[in-house]
Amino acid sequence: MPTTLRTEEEYFLLPGENDAEKxxxxxxxxxxxxxxxxxxxxxxxxxxxxxxxxxFASRAPQGSKYVLWKGDSQVWxxxxxxxxxxxxLGATFLQRSKYSGPPSPEVDQAWRELxxxxxxxxIPEEQxxxxxxxxxxxxxxxxxxxxxxxxxxxQLHCLDYLRQNLYPDYYGHHHDHGGVIAPPEGxxxxxxxxxxxxxxxVRSALMKV
Length: 209
Fold this sequence. Notes:
With 209 residues, the protein is mostly helical. It has a domain at 88-207. It contains six helices and four strands. The protein has helices at 2-59, 105-115, 125-128, 151-165, 168-171, 194-207, and strands at residues 66-68, 84-86, 121-124, 145-148. The strands form two sheets. It has a two-stranded antiparallel sheet. Strands 3-4 form a two-stranded antiparallel sheet. Helix 2 packs antiparallel against helix 4 (151-165) and helix 4 (151-165) packs across helix 6 (194-207).
């Protein structure tokens, strides 16, 4: 009987001893796994933060508030030494301005101040010969001069014309080109469709084509 008891004691003790020896190993392995997961999660979070900061930094204005275009491209412009760029946020969706609302002398004046003095000007022949687009000679005696204009003022002029066409009872059919040049005739002497021209001009400006 004593022999049998020792044998049973050894039988039951040995598994217990093995479990006790293995338990610290299992605990240490579990701790390493949790530590590795936490470390990888922290690295992923830091990478995401860096990516977001880089994204916003790349979109932020760089350098001076005013950047002059010096005409580095192949397209030459007589205004390239005078044109500057200013970073400015646009209006919100529902924000109104002095250009909004039904027609009035105040609204008309605000629109006219945007473009009326700058729609067209004239340059000498030596400058006109550098232009990529064709231009027209200003009628009259003296040294030849050619009509030019920054397209942004042409677009504002067209946008104002579209605005006026929303109120035909107020504006009628009168339209002022600034007294520089009359609109050209269409093919086969068809009347110039100013409304169609302005719609296409604004579309082209928005699409950059």
